[in-house]
Write a structure and sequence with these properties.
alpha+beta, 6-stranded antiparallel beta sheet, 4-stranded mixed beta sheet
Length: 242
């Protein structure tokens, strides 16, 4: 029987960057992206930027949205920093032989002004990820059990909560693996920015099969909802974590 590796992406905040028009408005996608998950796997392998092995592009990745969470907005301001400007002045002098002009010091909103940045994140969401690769599964499993670089949910500040590494199990388990039963409060707080769940006993969940081009092929399944302790025991019995 073919096997896959399974992860659980859950935490107070997640950020899976989508397209943006300007540097001052940064939006998250509603679900984890192919590029973001490839980066998570590459970090676990210990690969640095520009040093990724090509086989990671062909790995099969699917994402199930167990709890879609809420979109939250963050307001930031960015000011020119003296140490950054000093470095830029030295680099400019070495490259051009001329001294830096103050008029060249800028942030995205204008010359020497405070930049206002708007970001959106996902709060309290839960996604299950299936990773399949017939020839590299053991290598991926070893890396995710003991990652070389810290695993995080789109931004370095957003660490995953336990359990993160679920283990290795039968291929295609996302289609019938139970989900954790949500409280009435969690359902009530669901944001219209995301899809709604269909029923508390056998909720309808969306599975996105992420191709190497980043395209989505959504599939919808109805699965059983279990209390959290029962779900954790089921995961322990179903997946191999050794």
């Amino acid at each position: 029987m073919a096997e896959s590796l399974y992860l659980r992406l859950a935490g107070p905040l997640q950020s899976w960057a989508g397209p943006r028009v300007t540097g001052n408005v940064v939006r998250t996608e509603a679900r984890p992206t192919r590029s973001g998950l490839e980066g998570l796997l590459a970090a676990a392998m210990g690969w640095r930027r520009g040093e990724w092995e090509e086989w990671i592009r062909d790995t099969s990745i699917s994402v199930r949205s167990d709890r879609l969470g809420n979109r939250v907005d963050e307001f930031q301001t960015i000011n020119p920093r003296d140490e950054d400007l000093e470095y830029q002045e030295r680099a400019y002098l070495l490259m051009t032989g001329r001294r830096w002009s103050k008029r060249a010091n800028f942030t995205p909103d204008g010359q020497n002004k405070t930049s206002i940045v708007n970001r959106t994140y996902i709060a309290d969401a839960v996604f299950l990820v299936e990773v399949s690769d017939g020839t590299r599964l053991e290598q991926i499993k070893s890396a995710l059990r003991k990652p070389q670089f810290t695993s995080y949910l789109g931004r370095k500040a957003f660490a995953p909560t336990f359990p993160f590494f679920l283990g290795v199990g039968p291929e295609g388990a996302l289609k019938d693996l139970p989900t954790v039963k949500q409280t009435a409060r969690a359902v009530q707080l669901s944001n219209d920015y995301f899809d709604a769940l269909a029923g508390p006993e056998r909720p309808q969940l969306r599975i996105d099969h992420l191709g190497c081009t980043g395209t989505h092929s959504p599939e919808f399944v109805n699965v059983e909802a279990l209390p959290q302790n029962d779900w954790i025991k089921l995961i322990s019995d179903t997946f191999d974590r050794t």
